[in-house]
Amino acid sequence: MKKILHLQPIDYYTQRNNPTKPWAACMPTSRVMFYLGNNIIFKNPSDLEDDEFFMKVLSSDDAEIMARSKYPSLALNGIPAYEIHGMYHSYLDSYVVGCRVSDFKTDLTFDDFIDRIKAGECIMTSGRFPEAGIDGHAFVVVGMLETAIETCLILADPWGDYRTEYKNHQGYGVTMSKADFSKHVKPGSQKWGHVLL
Q1: Which of 63, 87, 148, 162 is deepest in the core (most CB within 10 A)?
Q2: Residues 116 and 174 in one domain
Q3: pTM of the full structure
Q4: pLDDT at position 20 over 90
């Protein structure tokens, strides 16, 4: 058995304690874990928790203006800036890190995720979990578990354990099989993911 894990339990964040919009905070909360798991230093000059600060930054007038300019089809359809994948590398990276450190890929495979984990990287992605009534939800792939039978991804999911339809709120260390990856991670045969440059 081989296990690789890039995010420590102390660095796990849950969106359930977000004071503003816990049901909608999966992307900013996942982004905190993406930075921590990839050893990226970011700034938070506020008294807010990191994920709440990211939500505030991405809810600002400046962020919304950029979203309407750069991603008009999404922003004009009512998608807030904090729910637009592109805003994380094109806006938040520069704001809290000082430079762009990531990209958003739309053509990743399970093997790409495994290769990046083996190279020391965490990947922020999103999926659909219809059994729990969730059409879109972000989480971070923070490791892998390889056994004689199969190789699974290890997640840090800010909402909890998808395998229990999110009845279990602890989402750190949840494993995801290749079959579940194919079924749940968006959108189809080629998958989305925030990766390091």
Answers
A1: 87
A2: yes
A3: 0.97
A4: no
